[in-house]
Known about the structure:
By secondary structure, this protein is of the alpha+beta class.
Amino acid sequence: MGILSEAYRDDPVKQDLIVPLDFSTIKEVPESHAWPKLYDDEDKALDQLKACISSIPVIDLEDPNALDNIYDACVTWGMFQVINHGIPLDLLDQMELEANKLFNLPFEQKKKVVRSPEEAIGYGYPRITPFFSKLMWNEGFTIMGNSYVQHAIKLWPNHFQGFCGVMEEYQTRMKDLGNKLMGLFLKSLNIPESTIKWEDRDLCTALHLNSYPACPDPTQTMGLAPHTDTFLFTILHQSGNASGLQVLKDGPGWVSVDPYPGALVVNVGDLLHIISNARFPSAVHRAVVNNEKQRLSFAYFYGPPLDFQVSPFTDYPGCEGPCFTSLKVKEYVSIKSKYLDLALSLVKKSD
Ligand SMILES: C=C1C[C@]23C[C@@]1(O)CC[C@H]2[C@@]12CCC[C@@](C)(C(=O)O1)[C@H]2[C@@H]3C(=O)O
Ligand SMILES: O=C(O)CCC(=O)C(=O)O
Ligand SMILES: [Fe+2]
């Protein structure tokens, strides 16, 4: 965790772009959060139609064809939903309870654990906020390793164990699932496991809880602006049957990724895009909000150790050479935190 902060230290975020609005007091979308109109009724109807015609695949990890299905989904969407993933459903329920407990605290309480400008852990707007002229309808809480302990003690001095126990268990289970998925990604790309080796304890992982409060006019604001995730891949739980996640696809445009009962969403991030030599797209996604109820999502980011050298794998039929320069994870994180969307093109090899 300390080392990841080093990658961010050069680009501290201004305090007013970290501390969220007290959404509980807001009756209409303020100018600061008003994005160009996102959609109207016609667009919404079209979105529903698109979701019926083409939707991201739901893959059963116990299906004998899981590997081929993962490959196809990654090439086509950079994203899929997964069932039979081994994460107990009651753990997901407990996560929802604990996340609700956190986000429904009085605003003054939550401010006690605000992220500091050069850090990644704690409460605040998404880290990508400085890249946009408008603020997002989102409050988040980032955990790395056991960073949640110091924060939980500040929030609930006498009752922090419940929150801590659930965060610890969730991260342990997510790491196991992450290791399993990593093996499947490598197999599906025909990359020998021996070429990509690291110690489990050195992995760079983070758990980020997102809360999107119910919004008086969802067409006017953005829950989470379009972005790609930085690390290898992300495992996302969307809570309470509330839609909001959308993925950008050539052709149809923004396609909703509606929650599928018991499924987790998995999306390709920038580092897997590089390792796959651009065979797997890093999924561009965003989250929109609704006016009925608060929506929660939990994103687990799975990344290699920060000193790991990331190189495109080029030993496959039809490969015309590496599309990217090879670089350390921490170098890429630093480029991403400075240039966001441009980061991938900056590490692209020129023809
Ligand atoms: C490990 C990380 C990935 C993340 C930046 C972070 O340091 C912690 C929060 C993560 C998050 C969650 C919301 C979307 C996102 C783009 C952001 O602003 O913060 C991701 C970051 C990422 O993938 O780069
Ligand atoms: O809330 C969602 O559905 C998306 C969250 C996300 O993209 C992220 O945390 O990186
Ligand atoms: Fe994301």
